[in-house]
Amino acid sequence: MVLPSGLTLPPLPYVVLLVGATLLVGALLVAIEPLVDQRIVTALAPWAALGGVLHALSQPPIYLYTPALDPLFRAPAVYLTTFVLAGTVWLLLSLLGVRRGSDTTITRNLGLVGTAILTVMLVLTAITALRSGLLDPVWPTAAFIGSLVVSGVVVLAIALWRTPVMIRSRYAAPVVIFAHVFDGVSTAIGTDVLGVGERSPIPRAIMDFAGTLPTASTIGSGWLFVVVKIVVASAVVVLMHQYLEDEPVEGSLILAFITAVGLGPATNNFVLFLFAG
Asked: Among 274, 260, 271, 269, which Cα is nearest to 46's?
């Protein structure tokens, strides 16, 4: 089994709605051909994080949504829901840019809108946690700041080792690395500090193996997952940089997807940690 536990398909009407909306938004994006380069990785990052927030709000102890909305934000439906939201905004910004005769700011504006929505959602979530008496900002903050520091060191190391890699992928590479370092660090904190069980079998297997090592009694078992995440993200950046230059559209979309795979779960952890008090 390689899929996380807790995945449930929504009722059939929701499946039809989400799949239909995904195909429609995807087809319209293909039709209008918005500008896609590695900056799109940065622009879509807050939307990936937003998906993690939206999913966390459907889990205990939060349970924010009404029964009618809840199936849209359970996994795996939340991936399609987030894509439809981000894609719709991307379409609207693209049409507005074409109407104004300028498409150079579309990617930037997509990132700004995503960041604004993400910020509002995080503030509202923190207020909800405070009002419920469960707010604990210590470990979420530690996970975020620690991930920034580790990511900075990794990016610097790659830049010193393979300078052309960072030159060619200077927008996408730091985002990819941070997304997966954040996932690794937040998962390690959840496992070693907060005692949260890991739902995904591969990370769980890695940490179970680390738990058998002599270091488990002193530094826990989450460190190995962080190391694996750093190695995998660094390898992706190094191996993809030439493809990103040769095929900017395909390369950028692949890296945006890889970023979402790390940043979504990381932000999900971040929000759940806010309610750990």
From this structure: 260
